[in-house]
Amino acid sequence: MKRRARDIRKRVEKRRKERRHRYGTPQQQELWAVTDEQRYGQPVVTYDHYTFEEKHPLFRKEAFILKMLLSACLVLITAILFKNPSGSLEPARQFVKETMEKEFQFAAVSQWYEKQFGEPLAFLSTKTENELKTAPKQYAVPASGRVLESFQKNGQGVMVETASNAKVEAVNEGIVIFAGTKEKFGKTVIIQHADGSESWYGNLGSIAVKLYDFVETGKEVGTAMTSSHDQAKAVFYFAIKQGDHFIDPIQVISFE
Fold this sequence. Notes:
InterPro entries: Cell_wall_metabolism_enzyme (IPR050570), Dup_hybrid_motif (IPR011055), M23ase_b-sheet_dom (IPR016047). By secondary structure, this protein is α+β, with helices and mostly antiparallel strands. Helix content is 36%, strand content 24%. The protein has a domain at 95-256: Glucose Permease (Domain IIA). Strands 1, 2, 3, 4, 5, 6, 7, 8, 9 and 10 form a 10-stranded antiparallel sheet that branches.
């Protein structure tokens, strides 16, 4: 019995020594027990109370879900509109087609903005008051040359023969709404003007502008494509579109 009690006392003493070795003396243990607030004299800020479930002040879940539902309904209604062959829905289908196919009037909006606020949009090049006053009101010549194919032949534009590597210039200021390759016209640039009209420059050897560039009258939009029959000559396509119809460029421009 005494031996067992002695063994217990030894184990207790051993644990006490291990605890003292690990945590130090009782005075040191009291020092470790001091809180940060007691040690530094002010409360310590922690972020434990923040959770991922808290709502962001700029994000409204209900509004987001409502917008998603409205978007889905709009897509569904449009799909039903075009899948249903009913003749009574034809006006609605025609309205949707015209809305989706109609070009946004960048140039007209730019002109309205400038009149209302006195400054052009940030992504457009700035113009001085003198430049605005002296801006030409008539179409300039894109490139001098000889008309090879008249408007009456294709009903859209004209094919003009000019010198090899001739620069093709904008006939009026506006916004580039297309710069790339079009079927039948090859490399093409389309500029939208403030009055809603468009000037088309096709069959280009190279393009010198980018999409949504603002171009001044006379700015180079590209070079004419070298003729396959005569290396000293080049040919480019030019057209003017007003609304949904093309007009004869010869009525407003003299190429020769």
